[in-house]
Write a structure and sequence with these properties.
single chain; alpha/beta; 3-stranded antiparallel sheet; 9 helices; globular
Length: 279
């Protein structure tokens, strides 16, 4: 029985974590041994432990912040685990686990190394030198990557522009079951949408909107004040697509109906319009 190992930086609440948990828990248990490795402290760790047929391994030194000693220790710990498990495939998620995990897998002789991009850890807010360094690191790590997966076409385009990959990439958008959200809107729900900004005839469809500080500092600061309650109000009405904050706010899983909110391109809004969408 072949072992397939997923590696993610931390099992916090987010789209990358949901994708990793889903992928690890939906393997054919008669053919594959499913292993999920993650750093400590995530709020989804206990949920992951309850998944049937998935072996959870916590890697103590694996964390989001860059720290030379901890990152080197995480590499050594992952290398030891992968040499013992001898997986046929290692599939990494998120930036830190993507770099450390892929090199550990390569050094352990894993034949197939996959990486899913859930947004890059390279942002315009970083100094130019840091952006170039991180881009070079991703490009070099791309040499040992068998195949890339992005969850949005924009990430695939950006990766090609940066020289991370050419043809060895697939766009696989994470989806949700939209049937519970296809009921007609109640008058009170329409009023809640109207109060949030878009016209009453426009429906903003969201699955989730987790914004990290490293993604966009200004959006993160504003999200602390407006997103938790207000996005939930929208999600209770119609939840169909996820947004990703970067150079654009991108609607991934379904068309975003944002009449009057200034859509510039199909499925995309400029970041400055985030307030028009959620507040």
């Amino acid at each position: 029985m072949d072992t397939i190992c997923h590696i993610i930086t931390k099992l916090e609440l987010g789209g990358a974590q949901e994708v990793a948990l889903y992928a690890a828990s939906h393997l054919d248990r008669t053919r594959f041994r499913s292993v999920l490795m993650a750093g400590p402290g995530g709020m989804l760790t206990e949920e992951a432990r309850r998944l049937p047929g998935v072996e959870i391994i916590i890697v103590p030194s694996l964390g989001r912040r860059i720290h030379a000693f901890s990152d080197l220790l995480a590499f050594v710990q992952l290398l030891g685990l992968l040499r013992r498990l001898k997986p046929a495939i290692v599939h990494t998620h998120s930036s830190k686990a993507g770099i450390v995990g892929r090199w550990a897998a390569w050094c352990a002789g894993v034949p197939l190394i996959l990486h899913t991009v859930h947004g890059y850890g390279i942002t315009p807010a970083q100094p130019c030198l840091v952006q170039r360094l991180f881009t070079l690191l991703e490009r070099i790590t791309g040499w040992i990557t068998t195949h890339w997966v992005t969850v949005a076409e924009s990430d695939a385009r950006k990766g090609r522009q940066w020289g991370l990959f050419t043809t060895n990439v697939s766009v696989i958008r994470p989806g949700i079951d939209g049937s519970p959200f296809r009921q007609p809107l109640l008058p009170a729900e329409r009023k809640r949408l109207r109060d949030l900004g878009p016209a009453a005839t426009g429906v903003v469809r969201l699955e989730s909107a987790q914004i990290h500080e490293h993604d966009d500092a200004a959006a993160h600061e504003r999200s602390q004040r407006i997103l938790p309650g207000r996005v939930m109000a929208i999600a209770l009405v119609h939840a169909m697509a996820a947004i990703d904050v970067g150079p654009h706010v991108e609607c991934r899983n379904a068309p975003c109906d944002v009449r009057g909110a200034g859509r510039e391109a199909p499925g995309q809004l400029p970041v400055k319009k985030l307030e028009d969408v959620v507040g």
